[in-house]
Amino acid sequence: LVIEKINLYQMIVEIFKLRKKELLQKDISYSINMPEDTLVHCDRIKLKHIIENLIQNAIRYNCQGGKIIIKLNDFNQDSWSLSVVDTGIGISIEEQEKVFERFYRVDKSHSKKINGTGLGLAIVKDSIEILSGRINLKSKLNEGTEVKIVIPNFIMNQRGEMNENL
Ligand code: ATP
Ligand code: MG
After folding, report:
1. What CA–CA distance (Å, rounded) separates 45 from 123?
2. Residue 153 gets which letter from DSSP?
3. Rounded to an integer, what distance in angstroms lies between the CA atom of residue 3 and that of residue 5?
4. Measured in angstroms, how far is the CA atom of residue 4 from the centroid of ligand 1?
5. Which ligand 1 atom sits closest to the C-alpha of 122?
6. Which of 31, 51, 80, 144 is at 20 to 30 A from 7, Cα to Cα?
7. What residue stretches are annotated with the Histidine kinase domain (predicted)?
8. pTM of the predicted model, to two decimals?
9. Among the atoms of ligand 1, which is closest to the Cα of residue 90?
10. ipTM, 2 decimals?
11. Ligand 1 lined by 49 (C-beta under 6 Å)
């Protein structure tokens, strides 16, 4: 891991910018609910990959005219937590535990011919584990999904080494 100071708000703005076309096509609006100067200590590549995947799902499994809300739930020296909320097709209770499995895709999304490999969330889960974080999914069929991640802040100790601050 390469730990550095990251402006979380800016990272999320960049991710949405790259998806402008899909957002326009599906007429999806979004909001990023956090201060513009939100700084976290984390591995940039891993973190970006995690948030990209969650936002990709929130777009892909959203409805025409849907919404995406990104919110910072908790933020302190030790850890922070972010939710990606969408107003999409949702996931039934029975399928919720399976979506983190490799290659698992909910039937409903197959029938809707939405592209995907079923690997996104499995890789996200691995990355979260490497960062000593947690991931949690809440969803209601035909209403939407909320994926919440909790990630510890990594800090520098007195010897100048990066340590996890748990
Ligand atoms: P990819 O590898 O491109 O991410 P994928 O999106 O199919 O493919 P995952 O991101 O792992 O794979 O998601 C697994 C399955 O969980 C999806 O196929 C979809 O059925 C369901 N799913 C994931 N996120 C959502 C969401 N926000 N709303 C509804 N269903 C979702
Ligand atoms: Mg995906």
Report:
1. 13
2. P
3. 7
4. 29
5. 11
6. 144
7. 1-155
8. 0.93
9. 29
10. 0.99
11. no
